[in-house]
Amino acid sequence: MRMLKIKNLTAAYGRVRVLKGISLHVNKGEIVCLIGANGAGKTTLLSSISGLLRPLTGEIILNGTLIPRRADKIVALGCSLVPEGRQVFAPMTVRENLILGAYVQYRKDKKALAGIETVYDLFPVLRERAEQLAGTLSGGEQQMLAMGRALMAKPKLIMLDEPSTGLAPLIVKNIFKIIQRMRTAGATVLLIEQNARAALKIADRGYVIETGKIILQGPASDLLNNRDVQRAYLGRVKGE
Known about the structure:
Helix content: 25-40%
Oligomer: single chain
CATH superfamily of the domain at 1-69 and 158-163 and 190-240: P-loop containing nucleotide triphosphate hydrolases
CATH class of the domain at 1-69 and 158-163 and 190-240: Alpha Beta
Mean pLDDT: 90
CATH architecture of the domain at 1-69 and 158-163 and 190-240: 3-Layer(aba) Sandwich
Order of helices and strands: EEEHEEHEHHHHHEHEHEEHH
Structural class: alpha/beta
Number of strands: 10
Number of helices: 11
Low-confidence stretches: none
């Protein structure tokens, strides 16, 4: 079953066209990664899906429904974004940040806040830091908070934009393990990641985007072994 289907999507900032006819899909229960250089259009794609940027043309279908224009309506449909740079609310506590993540669902279901225990189970450090100001957390803890906040909306599809940026290797390894656990818990994941090797190792499928176009796609294992992908994004080529 297709959780997300994008067809011929174009988007621009002013007169600069960034996405040029993007088509892709994410099946229910998959981890799909999108890799590419800075400026290729990866974040613009997530902004278009999440309602932060209005596309020029094309279709975005989430779980069989053409997505609305408003970001809150898209969250209500079951799509959450973990933005690049984490963007937690620094003057608020960890618990308050998580409660804000449940806002859209809480309007429909007053029991939505009970999901905070599920988040604490997935990220035990957040339970320990519940009353601590988000701005005082380490980079890795802030990333976990951003992920937990997105999960509070009970998403069917969770999109992560560069979750490993600026984090120590050991923390990155833990973040990728948590992404796998999120999938095991029932979420479908669309992942944008500069660490292409780590992303492809946990993904089912991948897409390579270059200057606003998909230039390559396939099973993650195939992309890992593709010599062009190795040269451009993995830093080495087997046998050379």
